[in-house]
Write a structure and sequence with these properties.
The protein has 375 residues and is mainly beta. The chain has five helices and 29 strands. Strand 25 and strand 26 form a beta hairpin. The longest helix has 10 residues.
Amino acid sequence: MAHAYTPGLKVTARTYHECRRTLPIPGEVIVQQGDRVQSSDVVAQANLPGDVTPLNLANLLSVSPADVPACMLRGEGERIEKGELLAESQGIFGFFKSRHIAKVSGTIESVSKVTGQVMVRGEPQPVRVLAYLAGEVLEVLPREGVVIGAHVSFVQGIFGIGGEAFGTIRMACPEADQDLTEELIPDDMRGQIVVGGARVTGTALRRAADVAVSAIITGGIDDDDLRDLLGHDLGVAITGGEQVGLTLVLTEGFGTIAMAQRTWQLLESRAGDRAAVNGATQIRAGVQRPEILIPLTQPVPDDSHKTHATSGYLEIGSPVRIIRDPYFGLIGTVAALPEQPHRLPSGSMARVLSVKLDAGEDVVVPRANVELLED
């Protein structure tokens, strides 16, 4: 049978997923192998060193650098609180003393008699890594983190912004081709993962942020509305660190595009279940897609444990989405994979495939113009 390979998005009701959760620096892992964890559980933690505040006490006290150590009322390694007296000069015959009151709390890291500089290390910054995926701790990485696995419903999006978010899935639109507008976001959606249909409007995004919606999943968005949400043009190849009050995942792209029925039906079937969402997207080397992970609530047979579909395998019968005009956004199945190049209307030669659209029409498109909807 003819076959080919093409990039694709995973949309599957059941698969086994593993994620690696690690600290940026060595720290403490607080769970054990075999433990069951929920999305918001802390699995590892560490303390990042605090910021250093330099103080030129020689200038502040009007003394020579060599005299600074004698002026210090706290030594290296000692703690100082904001508002406390840190240093005092000898003055003249005990008069005309200069003083310096600490502007920050922290630990005195160094006192230099060469430069007259004092370094105060601020409070350590706690870093906590959450489980993100509700499941079983498969492996503990000493002082680093864990590997967590679970059977999930798994949906990848085209594009997203914002980091990890958790909540209960709630359908906002009754149909996959309906726009998500502000009227469809009531106050009781606070902390939930809201599923729209086609385009989400800018006013709906602002309303969702005001209500404190956890995340929005929908078909598309207008460029102007995304720019207004971010406050600037998105000119980077990596997203995920935006602070806009919520996470946004687009399943189809930019513009008014209805969510694919396959994706819509899967999310609708899991309404009311808790999920984890990550809007982080990388569109250059090392592609990363935004994702929705919904742990399965029913037991899964042991014989399906840790099974994965072959990624990118395109064959007759494979579900695909067309990603270029004139059939942009349409979904169908591969009907044929001709071996020989085909002459396109532009006059160029390219390898093509025949797609049987959901509406029943057969169309011929270049292979580069489709993406696989992976099971």
